[in-house]
Amino acid sequence: MTTSTLDRPAARTYPAYSRPLWRRALLTREFAVIALLIAVLFYSNANVPNFDSPLTMYYLFLDIAPILLIALPMTMIIITGEIDLSVASVVGLSSVLVGVLHQDAGMSIPVAGAVAILVGAVCGAFNGFLVAYVGLPSLAVTIGTLALYRGIAVGLLGTKAVTDFPEKWTDLAKERITEGSSYPMILVPFLVLAVVFVGLLHFSPFGRGVYEIGLNDEAAHFSGVDVERTKFWLFVMAGAVSAFAGIYYTLRFGSARGDNATGLELQVIAAVLLGGVSIFGGRGALHGVLAGAVLIGVISSAMRLESYTVNVINIVIGTLLVLSVISTSLLAWAQGQLARRRASPPVSGQSSEPGQRRQAAAATDSTNER
User: Fold this and answer.
1) pLDDT, tens digit, for every residue of 49-86?
2) pLDDT bucket at 22, cuts 50 / 70 / 90
3) What is the pLDDT of residues 105-162, one digit of tens each?
4) Domains contained in the chain, CATH given
5) What are the TM regions of this chain, as residue ranges (predicted)?
């Protein structure tokens, strides 16, 4: 019995199973956040008085700079399925250390800042050790260290504030990149760190390991990823970057206090989740996170110019965050339903026309052989 090559199904290759490039690029949560950001910018420029002025953009970036900085390591931590709620307390602790070391110990701002960053890295290492090597849940650990680090900060300085900082350093924290520019100088170190973290997450074996841990840490372990070491160093990076953000925070406002940046961790997590990172881990991209952070800043700035209260602004941002989290579950449910419909077998008696032709050809061959 001979069979025709026309009856054989064509071999499927990997591209045959993948989505088209335009769908992979455009039909993503990251692109949706970027599109929403562009729409809000256009609307605010057209309808909010003075929103498009260089001064408004300048203060917008000054305000969101700490969020942008801390969101870089926080993105990688959440992609692994963990979380760090102690970052704002590290900001406050580093702020106090800069103030105390400069005022009481007579250290220069660069030396005091270096010590503060080192202490921030140690705080992150303590979190990472408890999470990665002891095996404690990151939510419980960082809730505890949130209170611990904030308590140390308040204990070192009490209710006082250190405000005696050299004017050249406070001016540097608020300096523009160029005269009359809308962009403050703090964006320069942020861009450097952003390039480093983008390369680390999206273009290195370390970053691929981060995604594998978020999808299945046990499978990642058996595939050669050092799960414990990866998580440990992510928390160390979060502590160091948070301490750097604390130094900027201190010099920008010219005040070192134990309660500096209280609640900042919630804004960072909101920006990360709004930017498309899954709270369950394994999914996310830094360009979406940065767009989410800027989107929160734009909405807050525009609503403040329209004289809305802080409570109303928080309601709007909170609603947007909840919708973004719900949309992930709804999209996954819809894709699952569609996949099940495509995979369901045809109803009896409704065979396809090519199948009927092949059956007829087989019957003819069998008759000829007899």
Assistant:
1) 888 888 889 999 999 999 999 999 999 999 999 999 99
2) low
3) 889 999 999 999 999 999 999 999 999 999 999 999 999 999 999 999 999 988 889 9
4) 28-333 (1.10.3470)
5) 26-46, 58-79, 85-102, 109-133, 139-162, 183-203, 232-251, 263-280, 286-305, 312-334
